[in-house]
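Honest question from a wet-lab person: if I give you the sequences of every part of a complex, can you actually get the arrangement of the whole thing, not just the pieces? Trying it with mine:
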Amino acid sequence: MKPEPNGDLSQASDEELVRLVCLGKRELFGHLVGRYQRSVYHIVQGILGNPADSEEVLQESFLKALQHIGGFRGEAQFRTWLTRIAINEARMRLRKYRPKLHDSIDEAPEEGMDMRPRELRDWQPNPEEKLAEAELARLLEKAIRALPSIYREVLVLRDLEHLSNEEAAQALGISLPATKARLLRARLMMRDYLTPHFQHRWHHRLLDRFAQLRRHP
Amino acid sequence: MIRCEDVLREVSNYIDTEVTEDLRHQIEEHLRGCHNCTVLVSTTRKTVSLLSSSRILELPSDVSQRLMQRLAVHWS
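Yes, you can. This is the full assembly:
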């Protein structure tokens, strides 16, 4: 990368870097890749769940962003624009494998399903201490993988990548209420999935019950 | 008077502190008398916190290197 007359560009804003890339300093796109490669990988890996596909889609997403960077108008933040490209690329990859699911991916019902959690048993106080870090990561990945894709997408954007509801709605191309409705469903499904792994053992529940009775006889 | 179904519908917004002050008070009032909803809120909150603090789906360094190599062709 050539040294810049204005000094260190690692501190430049995304918009400034995009402007310079559009002016022909295409190598500066590397700064944007450095900033967002982890996030884009997270998102495509969350949606696809297959490392080989995720790597290809990661590359395709940044290539497409570079090719179309002149079309970035700054209506959304660069990150949101890039995220939208990555989601579309990942969805296309999913459809390639499962064309019959095409409609259900986009048009799963938002309302009218029984959302009542099946398990209302309490969890141990510190569930993360029950499992080693790697084991917990595997369990969470498996739980995410078990979600239908529209819920997986929103969960990854909100709870792994910490996009706001508004940013997630923009990146997914859906309304804010639909984003929140999907997120609610996604979190409840995750909770249901994790509950058998973290619920109180029967003797803990019994001790809790005694403690309650002692407080409120 | 808020019901369990209302708490269920709002639990995600409540955790994100994206409910009005009035609704927040109503939910908290309900939680004081409802064990099931208290469990629902605490375990859903814990679910979100496990996801937020987890180190899953990390980007392997060789994947990052190959990405840069493939892109560098387009700007060199």
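Two things worth pointing out. Chain A touches chain B through 48 residues (CB under 8 Å). The radius of gyration of chain A is 22 Å.
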